[in-house]
Design a protein that fits this description.
The structure holds two protein chains of two kinds.
Chain A lengths: L5 H19 L4 H19 L3 H21 L4 H35 L14 H16 L9 H9 L1 H4 L7 H9 L8 H35 L5 H32 L17 H5 L4 H12 L9 H19 L3 H22 L6 H20 L3 H13 L18 H16 L4 H7 L4 H17 L12
Helix pairs in contact in A: 1-2, 2-6, 3-4, 3-5, 3-6, 4-5, 6-8, 9-10, 9-19, 10-15, 10-16, 10-17, 12-13, 13-14, 14-15, 15-16
Chain B lengths: L1 H23 L5 H26 L18 H11 L4 E4 L9 H8 L4 E4 L6 H14 L4 E5 L18 H4 L7 H4 L2 H15 L3 H5 L20 H11 L12 H19 L4 E6 L4 H9 L3 H15 L5 E5 L4 H4 L13 H12 L7 H21 L5
Parallel strand pairs in B: 1-2, 1-3, 3-4, 4-5
Classes of the chains: A mainly alpha, B alpha/beta.
Chain lengths: 470, 383
């Protein structure tokens, strides 16, 4: 069930919210939490019921290992248990997400003809696997309390606003919120702020992201050759699409969670305003960056083992990030490019060089746009087609962009949409700021009603979120 | 005057101060804010649904009574026509049949009342869908089908555009997709309002006798050699893009079996007239140039053989009608012929002329090859 579907907005969500607060009146928190867990399982099973077994098994196994780790004083078996838990999670992710990629490459390298399984990727597997890996590591480090029970742990993993596409939450920021008795009663300010955030996210997704998506699809997947402007419009459209799609999803997730009195960590902070690539990664998919720093970059040694080891660690972290996003060489190269950019910036800073902030912003945005081409393209050939158009085409006719646009959208409309889109991401206050400063004013009320109504009118075209694929 | 300026200034100051107050200070409690926002959103949505239901631009709920029906968006409106109109015969096909006048169809073929289910680029899968829906809705007696042979090279289940399911089924639970739909609000309703306001283009599309006609009789369509040359240059050659995969014949015949012969067989009570629309000789030349002509002619031969296996089917062929296909004065491009040719076709079918049998289809194909050969020898207008 998509957040941007009528079933979710008009049936599922109101029913779950009313049921949750209604059952909380019984003064038996486990009843309301059970209701929420059942609702989350229903939400997940709506996509593919057979994968309920997978997610439930993953929760039970991780919970048992984590509890054992947290409760066992010392000894080498703790390391073994962590190893088993990690192998279980990585194995699950590897089997469902990377087995075909591995087989394809072995076949290509060794000339074999192993058949690929063509498995349907379980939704959110990358997110709930990382979430539970962090729990296991924290249990091993004794940074997780032993008092968690299976119901609370299930809620931490399954809580539907963040289940499918994040933010990647950590147990210590979620469990206390579920346990807090204050959070079991409806809070009108949280409800109002949640509705406002949800409206912003819904508008971003169904009006903005889905409009830009059609142009990006035409440019990347349909046209065999692109002119200069066609390629740039496709690349710019995808740059805006992925931001509005994923940040729209996160705004909706934060809004929904807030209506349950749960504060999810922010995932975006106007990333296209970043002054450098390092700054970009502190603003884009912030919870993934946090996870990779804590559980990959620091354990590898971070920046404490000399310059070249630091560079190698940076590169390894970004390659993992690329591979996490998708089982394909385009994702690996995308991650590698960001790794190289981070190393260049680090070397630049180490030499004490400075860059004007506006030049830094422009260069960062230019690099990010160019790298998104690899991220979006179905193959290296498709990516090269777009790059050829962007940098080597001699056809500069603006009128040619009609081929990239949706029927009924003129070239001048497209120009206006793109300018408006970039104005929004570069100038306007972002949802994180709005969420912190929300006040139930008339202006916010009018804006919320308008955003909801326009978004619902656009919802007759249904499309999944990009990050559902990861 | 000075007093007016002063008063206006006061009013402006007061209004702007009130607005700033509204924007910056919380004038309502969060609880009240939430209640007002949710009820306002639902109220606006309900109002929009009521407007769409009342105007009903795609005739989903009823044949319009408040205004004269508009026939502007075929794929969205045809389900409503199938559901809400009275008919005993249906015209099926693509833009090749869009200019037919229903009155002429009824007069020539002896129908009581007909409707046209002929959207542009109609594929065999769409023809199948329309026939199935119409036969469930009304006791059908007649069908006229303009068989576009190149449509059969498309995948068996392909429609030209993704069809809006919520308009094609009878499930009212998904009607919200119609009642809250930006296309209905931005295109459907404005088109109806333009027609009511008397805008010529839209007023002409209110002619039920010529529903979906692309030649509205307003003289805007040009015919003749210049128009054909222009279209050939602009679109790169009529039918040239219809590249055929391997085993094309088998795939095309499977498409025929699944999408056409299925309903022909299931409805022996329906008198079905099939005709091959007359594309210009330039289109055949294009097909020949890319090496597809023989495949299409072979398909045509086998299709006739299979269609004539059913006693309720009659087949007519106008593709070898030299007076039509070799005269560009009849065409606006390589394939689309004028309404006058449409009238001629109907009259001929009414008189049972140009009828095809298993024997004569081979002769027709030989003649077609000869026509193309002669045309190419004389110098095609666009090589």
């Amino acid at each position: 069930m998509l957040f941007s579907s009528h079933q979710f907005i008009f049936l599922f969500f109101p029913a779950v919210l009313l049921g949750y607060y209604g059952l909380n009146r019984l003064d038996r928190p486990w009843v309301a939490r059970s209701w929420l867990v059942m609702a989350c399982l229903f939400f997940y099973g709506w996509f593919e019921p057979s994968y309920l077994i997978l997610i439930v098994s993953s929760i039970v196994v991780n919970f048992m290992i984590g509890r054992w780790l947290a409760g066992t004083p010392s000894g080498r078996w703790r390391m073994v248990a962590l190893g088993v838990g990690t192998a279980f999670n990585v194995g699950l992710l590897g089997y469902y997400k990377y087995s075909d990629f591995l087989v394809e490459n072995i076949n290509a390298l060794c000339g074999l003809e192993w058949t690929m399984k063509g498995l349907l990727l379980p939704l959110g597997i990358s997110f709930f696997t990382f979430q539970q890996l962090s729990y296991l590591v924290d249990c091993h480090r004794r940074e997780a309390p032993t008092r968690y029970n299976l119901l609370n742990y299930s809620l931490f993993v399954l809580f539907f606003p963040q289940l499918i596409a994040g933010p990647i939450v950590l147990h210590h920021e979620m469990m206390p919120q579920f346990d807090d008795p204050k959070n079991t009663k409806p809070d009108s300010l949280n409800l109002a702020a949640g509705v406002h955030l949800f409206a912003i996210g819904l508008f971003k997704k169904v009006v903005l992201a889905d409009t830009f998506a059609e142009w990006a699809t035409n440019g990347f997947d349909v046209l065999p050759v692109l002119t200069f402007w066609q390629a740039w419009v496709a690349a710019l459209a995808y740059t805006l699409q992925i931001y509005f799609d994923f940040s729209g999803y996160c705004d909706m997730a934060m809004g929904i969670a807030r209506m349950f009195n749960i504060h999810l960590p922010a995932n975006f902070n106007s990333p296209y305003r970043a002054r450098s690539i390092k700054d970009f990664w502190t603003r884009w998919h912030m919870t993934l960056g946090r996870f990779l720093s804590h559980y990959v970059y620091f354990p590898l040694g971070g920046n404490r083992r000399g310059r070249f080891r630091t560079y190698a660690n940076l590169m390894a972290t970004f390659l993992v990030s690329g591979l996490w996003h998708g089982a394909g060489w385009t994702f690996v190269i995308w991650g590698g490019l960001h790794g190289v950019a981070m190393i260049i910036q680090r070397a630049w800073n180490e030499r004490g060089l400075e860059m004007h902030r506006w030049l830094g912003r422009a260069l960062t945005l230019f690099f990010v746009i160019c790298a998104w081409v690899l991220f979006r393209a179905e193959s290296m050939t498709a990516a090269m087609k777009v790059y050829r158009g962007m940098f080597f085409s001699a056809d500069f006719r603006w009128s040619q962009i009609d081929a990239v646009l949706t029927a009924g959208v003129s070239a001048s409309d497209a120009r206006d949409w793109l300018i408006a889109g970039f104005m929004m991401v570069l100038v306007c206050k972002n949802a994180m700021v709005k969420s912190h400063t929300f006040q139930p004013t008339v202006r916010n009320g009018v804006a919320t009603v308008l955003l909801v109504v326009v978004a619902i009118l656009y919802m007759s075209r249904i499309s999944p979120f990009i990050y559902y694929n990861f | 005057m000075r007093r007016i300026v002063l008063v206006s200034g006061e009013i402006w100051n007061y209004a702007s101060a009130r607005w700033r107050l509204c924007c910056t200070v919380s004038p309502v409690s969060s609880r009240r804010w939430g209640a007002i926002v949710i009820s306002s959103s639902l109220g606006v949505l309900l109002g929009i649904a009521l407007i769409v239901f009342t105007i009903d631009p795609y005739q989903v709920y009823r044949r319009p009574t408040l205004y004269k029906p508009l026939f502007a968006d075929a794929y969205n409106t045809i389900p409503g026509i199938i559901r809400n109109y009275d008919y005993d015969g249906i015209v099926l096909g693509s833009s090749m049949c869009q200019n037919f006048r229903l009155s002429e169809v009824e007069a020539c073929l002896g129908w009581r009342k007909g409707v046209k289910l002929t959207p542009s680029g109609c594929t065999p899968a769409t023809v199948n869908l329309f026939f199935t829906l119409a036969s469930k809705r009304q006791p059908l007696r007649h069908a006229l089908y303009g068989l576009d042979i190149f449509g059969f090279s498309r995948p068996v289940d392909e429609h030209r555009i993704p069809l809006p399911d919520y308009l094609y089924d009878d499930d009212i639970r998904n009607d919200y997709l119609y009642l809250w739909n930006r296309n209905v609000l931005y295109e459907g309703i404005p088109d109806v309002l333009k027609a009511i306001a008397g805008r010529k283009k839209y007023r002409l599309k209110q002619n039920e006798d010529e529903m979906w006609a692309w030649d509205l009789g307003d003289g805007r369509r040009e015919y003749g050699e210049n128009a054909v040359v222009h279209a050939e240059k602009r679109f790169g050659g009529a039918l040239k893009g219809n590249t055929l995969p391997e085993n094309a014949i088998e795939a095309m015949l499977e498409n025929l079996d699944v999408n056409i012969l299925g309903f022909v067989k299931d409805h022996p009570e329906v008198d079905i007239v099939v005709f091959f629309p007359p594309y210009s000789i330039q289109a055949w030349h294009n097909l020949n140039a890319v090496g597809n002509m023989d495949t299409y002619l072979e398909f045509k031969e086998k299709a006739v053989e299979r269609l004539l296996g059913f006693p309720n089917v009659r087949v007519y062929d106008f593709q070898i009608e030299k007076t039509i296909v070799c005269d560009f004065a009849n065409y606006r491009d390589g394939t689309h012929y004028s309404p006058q040719v449409g009238t001629l076709i109907l009259e001929r079918m009414g008189r049972d002329e140009n009828r095809v049998t298993n024997e004569c289809i081979q002769k027709n194909n030989t003649l077609m090859r000869q026509l193309v050969k002669n045309y190419e020898a004389s110098g095609a207008i666009v090589p």
